[in-house]
Design brief:
The protein is α+β, with helices and mostly antiparallel strands and 271 residues long. The chain has five helices and twelve strands. A hairpin with a 6-residue loop joins strand 8 and strand 9. The chain is elongated and about 65 Å long.
Length: 271
């Protein structure tokens, strides 16, 4: 079984002393998608999960430590996502592994992640540029009263079909909880769409209703995409979440209407 309950996730585990690809723990995407009415063989979106790794090290052929940052891009149509704590443990298992070149280390990581995800995972050294200022309109400054913190409540969502717009909205108030450890996951949401104008108050209340929700980052973004698509009926929609770093990793899932151009990869100041 590939469920968190069947693994060592969320429990005290020994720090890895040697390389072990078996530490990577895959979780079927189909499980979370079934909860929101999405079939794995008929995805209503395209997208990827961009992981940004800040703590990566290995040894060169003579035993001298090497350090790097890296970006991993997992396609959303892969059958599995990789649980974040297991990825952290896996990357730490490379600390004492020798490689003949930096490229050999990169290739090993790509092979291991692709095997667990069930699809080709792109691995590149380095990180995206830091965003100087968020484009679009923030919905966070609204003077409203909120008392609903979960479960996610899409009934707040609505749009005005009399106004057809193309705009980008963002919020820094997304919070959900890790379904394995219960720890808080903090993030920013960037929503770009074309269609009936989305009502801001309802959108903010909806995003805040994730506050006590337990869900993986990738599943939360897919739920947001589905709920906004259903209740606001945009002609085109792009949803990206940029979560803050934990354990030397941050996750940036992106889901969009097929045919949408991938957004420029950027890092938030909180990352």
């Amino acid at each position: 079984m590939n469920t968190p309950q069947d693994s060592s996730l969320g429990r005290e585990v020994a720090y890895p002393s040697q390389y072990d690809a078996g530490l990577l723990f895959p979780i079927p995407r189909a499980t979370g998608r079934a909860e929101i009415g999405v079939a794995d063989d008929a995805l209503p979106f395209i997208g990827h999960d961009r992981w940004q790794a800040y703590e990566l090290s290995w040894l060169d052929a003579r035993g001298k430590p090497c350090v790097a940052t890296a970006t991993f891009t997992v396609p959303c149509d892969s059958p599995h996502l990789v649980e974040s704590k297991s990825l952290k443990l896996y990357l730490n298992s490379l600390n004492s592994e020798r490689f003949n070149s930096d490229e050999a280390a990169r290739e090993r990581i790509a092979i291991d992640l692709s095997a667990r995800a069930g699809a080709d995972v792109a691995v590149a050294f380095g990180l995206p540029e830091m965003a100087e200022a968020e484009a679009g309109e923030s919905i966070d400054a609204q003077d409203i009263e909120i008392s609903d913190y979960g479960p996610p409540n899409p009934s707040y969502l609505s749009s005005d079909e009399a106004q057809i717009v193309e705009e980008l909205l963002f919020s820094h108030l997304l919070k959900s909880n890790c379904p394995v450890t219960g720890q808080p996951d903090w993030g920013s949401v960037v929503l770009a769409y074309r269609g009936p104008r989305i009502e801001r108050t309802g959108l903010l209340r909806y995003l805040v209703s994730f506050r006590e929700h337990a869900g993986f980052h990738e599943q939360c973004v897919e739920r947001i995409f589905q709920d906004v698509s259903t209740h606001c009926r945009p002609n085109q929609l792009s949803v990206e979440a940029r979560y803050t770093r934990r354990g030397g990793l941050d996750i940036n899932p992106w889901r969009a209407t097929p045919g949408t151009e991938s957004p420029v990869a950027l890092r938030e100041i909180r990352q």
